[in-house]
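Let us work through a complete example step by step.
Step 1: write down the sequence.
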Amino acid sequence: MCVMYDLVIRRARLVDREGVYDIAISNGVVELVSRRVSERGVEEIDAGGGLVTPVFVNPHLHLCKVYTFEMIGGDALKYYHGGGMGSSIRAIELASKVKEKYDEKWIIANVRRALKEALRFGTLYIRGFADVDSKARLEGVKTLLKTKEEFKEYISLQVVAFPQDGIVREPGAEELLYKAVELGADIVGGIPWIEDSDEDEWKHIEVAFNIAKEYNRDVAMLVDDAGDPTLRTTEKLARATLKHGWINRVTAHHARAMALYPDTYTRKLARQLRKAGISVIVDPHTGPLHARVDLLLEENVNVALGQDDIVDAYYPYGRNNMLEVAFLASHIMWWTTPDKIKIIYDMVTWRAAKAMGLKDYCRRVMEGCKADLLVHGYPTLRELLLNHEAPRYVIKNGKIIVENKYITEVKSSANTERNL
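Step 2: predict the structure and record it as tokens.
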């Protein structure tokens, strides 16, 4: 056999096809998917019947806060997770104390650790939030921009300038948002529900959109993140998106109060979100309430899963492992049938990529798609979620960038022995 391709993956299973296939890659692109590729590759991988999928995408991670749990303790968790999430603002106030200690020197070590974990688990696209306020200043934004450059060969990082403590209620936040975008932040963030009045919520949203339009940036806002059915900033965000013509450029995160809305209003809201092209990012593993994923999907609103937090004041776990997030979401939402598992998988792959506006991300492994791929140690989606282990290989632009050597063979429910 002659050498024709840069990389050939042999005996791979695919999500959308029966049987096993060979996948031939050159110049960072999948050139051939066939039952048998006769030509050789400069490098070859035997998938051994394991799934090969596109890489994972995390559209929501508070990256400036990762691994700060020991610095702040668990007081915020009591208010964020307890009492039906009715005291979420109190949790945010307690959690914000860690920002009094913000310094790039220790933040950067934590961010690097989180991004290396992302590489290990095959999460190569991340939207990272960095707080901007009187305490955090621009330390988080500067750190994320620096690590974005450091890891750019492996991870595509979108940096969100995020006014966690508000814009109207936090003096100087608006100016810091402008400065963050001028420094290079990719996305304008917001959290309008935290403001003290309806008028201030609208002003918060308008400030963010004005900055986004001036600098041609997308918008990402945390909305209605509390157990209060009177919160309506998800609707306000949709209306503002339509008003400003920012269609398909906005993401709404959390929207937990939606769990308490009447169905009639929720469907009306979903239609507004669809019309505005707003993707909803949910993180059901981080709190007892979550947006109505089932209803949103019925109304053709794009929904994705996010990691949200890694070992911080809001969530004491997390590994930047989107299979783990999917596994937890499957339990919390009782989505355990094969069709639901497939949707959950979609929410950490192509649906998350759509939310982040990734133009060259392919929703399935096919000829002509960018070769950002994972070779897994299991043959089915159910078993991927069941075990939520790191993939055997992580491939970026057609090159192997991570090999998790502790997985030496494809396993299934009929073969659970691990060769360590």
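Step 3: interpret the result. Confidence is low (pLDDT under 50) at residues 414-420.
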